[in-house]
Amino acid sequence: MSNIPQTRLEQVVDRFEEVEARMGATTDSDEIVALSREHAELRPIAEGARALLVMRAGIAEAEALLTAGDPDMAELAQDELQVLRSQLPAAEKAMQLLLIPRDTDDKASIVLEVRAGTGGDEAALFAGDLFRMYTRYAQLQGWKVDLVSASEGDVGGYKEIIANVEGDGAFGRLKWESGVHRVQRVPATETQGRIHTSAASVAVLPAPEDVEIDIRPEDIRIDTMRASGSGGQHVNTTDSAVRITHLPTGLVATSSEKSQHVNRDKAMQQLKIRLYEQEKAARDSERADARAEQIGSGDRSQKVRTYNYPENRLTDHRIGLTLYALDKIITGDRLDEVVTALMAEDQARRLAAMERDA
């Protein structure tokens, strides 16, 4: 017997049809944008609900024919009933997955931050490897990567690198990347072939399209500074880099492109996003607790993954996933296998929670 009430399916279809009707009637541009977004989100759910309603109606009709007293129709009804009943569990499960509450920020673009941790130069090199992995993955997804700021390591890689990743669903796919990533490999400078362990931290913050955060001029301090570069002709000789400090919270945002005007805009946007995330975290403490029970809190202090180069092994410690394809994952080409596994685990746990609460 299904856990999805008939009225719930009908409500989904009714709301979708209501949105469609309103889209055709309104002339308000802001409302059209909001309705279009809701329409796109509801479409797959409404299609699943309609299909399931049709299937249930077909089963009810076939069952009625079985008791109608017509042998020929009863035989046809029995065949139809057998097919529909065999398809029903999969359809019910698919609909349950569609009805799982989504994180409100799953469709958002992101701010991606990668920082070298313990391990000195090797940690900076690893941070560079991670950033290139995410950049390649973003390209495969059709997303746009826009560099905000970077502090290069002494022998390569990055001490810190921050970028905006713009694309539909970026946060929903990459939010579980937040945490400490550990690497085990033989550094190029190691003469005796010893394996070193280093780490880098990754933070993924949602960047909603409309971040409405009111920042008072007296609450910020804006500093300009000379942007760091890789040396030679690449060194920025003007004080174009911008650092904005939010005095009440101590939050800092920087941007180090060539244009000071662009840097001010980027740094202010980053600051708004950080303030938005801080406010959202305070409001959503219950949701944060739920996340911690699922795959983990995503906190930066949490070791989430190990990259073992000698064994060509990647292990995600939260879900016990091990893949011997590190060479393909670190290039970004097979990272989606890890991302999909994390999403599937989260989905399964949410579904189990729904069934417990039903």
Mean pLDDT: 83
H/E element order = HHHEHEEHEEEEEHHEEEHH
Distance between the termini: 13 Å
Instruction: Please name the CATH topology of the largest domain.
Output: Alpha-Beta Plaits
CATH class of the largest domain: Alpha Beta
Q: Biggest β-sheet: count, sense, barrel?
A: 8 strands, mixed
Number of domains: 2
Rg measurement, Å = 26 Å
Largest sheet strand order: 2-3-1-5-4-9-10-11
Count helical runs: 9
Give the tally of β-strands: 11
CATH architecture of the largest domain: 2-Layer Sandwich
**Unreliable runs:** 229-237, 290-300
Roughly how much helix do the residues carry, as a percent range? 40-55%
Query: Outline, from the CA principal axes?
Result: flat
Q: How large is the share of residues in beta strands?
A: 15-25%
Structural class, please?
alpha+beta
What can you tell me about this protein's structure?
- Strand 2 and strand 3 (158-166) form a beta hairpin.
- The protein folds into two domains: 6-98; 109-348, Alpha-Beta Plaits.
- The radius of gyration is 26 Å and the shape is flat.
- It has helices at residues 6-25, 29-66, 71-98, 121-141, 170-174, 260-283, 285-294, 326-329, 335-357; strands at residues 109-116, 144-152, 158-166, 179-185, 196-207, 220-225, 241-246, 251-255, 303-308, 313-316, 321-323.
- The strands form two sheets. The protein has an eight-stranded mixed β-sheet with strand order 2-3-1-5-4-9-10-11, with helices on both faces. The protein has a three-stranded antiparallel β-sheet with strand order 6-7-8.
- Helix 1 (6-25) packs antiparallel against helix 2 (29-66) and helix 2 runs antiparallel to helix 3.
- It is built from nine helices and eleven strands.
- It is 48% helix and 21% strand.
- With 358 residues, it is α+β, with helices and mostly antiparallel strands.
